[in-house]
Amino acid sequence: MVDGATRISGAPPDRDGAQAEAALLAAFARGDRGAAVTLTQSIAPRIFAMACRMLGDRSEAEDVTQEALLRLWRIAPDWEPGRAQVSTWVYQVALNLCRDRLRRHGGRALDLDAVPEPPDEAPSALARMAGADRAAALQAALDTLPERQRQAVMLRHLEDLANPEIAQIMEISVEAVESLTARGKRALVAALKGRRADLGFEDDE
Amino acid sequence: MTDDAVFKAHLDAARTETPQMDAAFMDRLISDAMAAQDALIAPPPVAPPVTRPAPGIWQQIREGLGGWPGLGGLVAASLVGIWFGAAPPSAGIGIDPAALVFGQVETYDDLFQTVAMPASFAEN
Question: Which of B18, B30, B40, B41 to mutate to test the interface with A (most CBs of A within 10 A)?
Answer without folding.
Answer: B18
